[in-house]
């Protein structure tokens, strides 16, 4: 007998997990397929969110909308899943140069940064934990999520609802029609691919302009608990008791599975420059981010098959992008609202010229 549901989701990383929660909230019947590999990007991530990034000190794209929503989303998810995984934590970036110090001083007077800047200091402030001889900037609306706890929580919820299959989604078994898709004995209105870099192996989405961006992280142990997140060259984010994730590297060329000596040397050097306390390396890991050339997600229907949808391209910022865009996608699927032009798959002209 055929089981009728609203949506199938393929992949339970940050994209799939956030979308699953959004659809459940809207009363939709869903089924999620996932083959959770140890090195999937969402599990490897330190889970950091930070509204002000980059060497040029700019607010990240859509920071005002995305960050206020992110707090609401993860706090509500903690209530639903009855788990603790969201940590609202200050983030401190020591200045490298006097020019940087001056630039931040003027930024701190800018009203649009007011929500994010707690304090700008011009002399060492947290020297018992980091090297900050000329001070730094203390930011708010930052923090991290423990992605392992979050993803497990969503999986458990789906299992309770009999909405989860730990199985490889095999495209050749899918039949697509004008009214929906069928897969073995399941029929759904649409299937949403939240498959990260694996999209490049899909015959529907292999032509997405995704760039695989390998990253390595280390776990370090310290003899003193750090009181905030530190970020300069690398981030140092709590991951256990006196245990911190340090990351990350960015490698577009060497995409081979596994950790590297070069990755460890780079991270050790950078964290050694940043911290003023001793540490020991406990573990090293790697994953591959699904990034895009224009650094925007790719969301929407396949140009030919309107019932086959993608939610991908979260790049280096899955933790902050996934809540906001999963809400937008869930509304769009329910016939309410539009997809952001900059994130909409329709911007990928090469995809459209192939089919039209
Ligand atoms: C080293 C590193 C550090 C990072 N740090 C941060 C950070 O601090 N903050 C931040 O915001 N972002 C960070 N990121 C980026 C973040 O991890 C990604 O943006 C995000 O995880 C992408 O999520 P996703 O759901 O699209 O993909 P994924 O996490 O890759 O999930 C895709 C899922 O789909 C499954 N799947 C694929 N194909 C199939 C199939 N055919 N059948 C069944 N299942 C399938 C996969 O097994 C996987 O479970 C980091 C990434 C890396 C690699």
Distance between the termini: 37 Å
Number of domains: 3
CATH architecture call of the largest domain: 3-Layer(bba) Sandwich
Helical residues, percent: 25-40%
CATH class wording of the largest domain: Alpha Beta
The SSE order reads EHEHEEEHEEHEEEHEEEEEEEEHEEEHH
Could you say what the CATH topology of the largest domain is called? FAD/NAD(P)-binding domain
Strand content: 25-35%
Structure at a glance:
With 356 residues, the chain is of the alpha+beta class.
Provide the descriptors you would attach to this structure in a database record:
8 helices, alpha+beta, 27% helix, 356 residues, D-Amino Acid Oxidase, Chain A, domain 2, single chain, 3 domains, eight-stranded mixed sheet, binds flavin-adenine dinucleotide, globular
What does this structure look like?
- The protein has helices at residues 14-25, 41-44, 63-81, 98-107, 147-160, 261-274, 318-333, 349-355, and strands at residues 3-10, 30-33, 48-49, 52-53, 58-59, 86-88, 91-94, 117-121, 136-139, 143-145, 164-165, 174-176, 181-183, 186-193, 210-222, 229-232, 234-240, 243-247, 279-292, 298-301, 308-312.
- Strands 1, 2, 11, 12, 13, 14, 20 and 21 form an 8-stranded mixed β-sheet that branches.
- It has 8 helices and 21 strands.
- The longest helix has 19 residues, at 63-81.
- The protein has 3 domains: 3-45 and 148-209 and 294-355, FAD/NAD(P)-binding domain (3-Layer(bba) Sandwich), CATH 3.50.50; 91-139, no CATH class; 211-292, D-Amino Acid Oxidase, subunit A, domain 2 (D-Amino Acid Oxidase, Chain A, domain 2, 2-Layer Sandwich).
- Helix 1 (14-25) crosses helix 5, helix 1 packs parallel to helix 7 and helix 3 (63-81) packs across helix 7.
- By secondary structure, the chain is an alpha+beta fold.
- The model has no long low-confidence stretch (mean pLDDT 95).
- The two termini are 37 Å apart.
- The radius of gyration is 21 Å and the shape is globular.
- The chain binds flavin-adenine dinucleotide.
- Flavin-adenine dinucleotide binds at residues 10-16, 33-37, 40-42, 44-49, 168-169, 194-196, 198, 215, 217, 247-248, 287-290, 312, 314-320.
């Amino acid at each position: 007998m055929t089981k009728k549901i609203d949506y199938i989701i393929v992949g339970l990383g940050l994209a799939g997990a956030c979308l699953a929660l959004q659809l459940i909230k809207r009363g939709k019947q869903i089924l999620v397929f996932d083959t959770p590999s140890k090195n999937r990007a969402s599990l490897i991530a330190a889970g950091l969110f930070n509204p002000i990034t980059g060497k040029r000190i700019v607010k990240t794209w859509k920071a005002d909308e995305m960050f206020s929503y992110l707090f609401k989303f993860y706090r509500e998810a903690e209530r639903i899943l009855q788990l603790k995984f969201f940590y609202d934590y200050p983030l401190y970036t020591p200045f490298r140069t006097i020019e940087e110090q001056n630039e931040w001083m003027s930024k701190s007077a800018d009203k649009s940064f007011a929500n994010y800047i707690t304090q700008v200091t011009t002399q060492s402030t947290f020297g018992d934990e980091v090297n900050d001889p000329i001070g730094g900037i203390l930011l708010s609306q930052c923090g991290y999520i423990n992605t392992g706890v979050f993803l497990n929580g969503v999986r458990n919820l789906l299992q309770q609802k009999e909405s989860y299959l730990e199985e490889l989604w095999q495209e050749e078994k899918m039949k697509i029609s004008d009214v929906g898709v069928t897969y073995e004995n399941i029929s759904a209105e649409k299937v949403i691919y939240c498959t990260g870099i694996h999209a490049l192996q899909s015959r529907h989405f292999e032509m997405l302009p995704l760039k695989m961006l390998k990253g390595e992280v280390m776990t370090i142990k310290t003899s003193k608990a750090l009181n905030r997140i530190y970020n300069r060259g690398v981030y140092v984010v709590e991951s256990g008791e006196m245990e911190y994730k340090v990351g990350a590297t960015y490698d577009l060329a060497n995409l081979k599975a596994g950790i590297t000596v070069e990755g460890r040397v780079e991270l050790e050097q950078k964290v050694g420059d940043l911290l003023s306390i001793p540490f020991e390396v406990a573990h090293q890991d790697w994953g591959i981010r699904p990034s895009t050339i224009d650094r925007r997600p790719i969301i929407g229907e396949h140009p030919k098959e309107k019932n086959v949808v993608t939610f991908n391209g979260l790049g280096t910022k899955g933790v902050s992008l996934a809540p906001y865009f999963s809400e937008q996608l869930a509304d769009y699927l329910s016939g309410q609202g539009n997809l952001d032009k900059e994130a909409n798959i329709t911007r990928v002209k090469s995809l459209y010229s192939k089919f039209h």
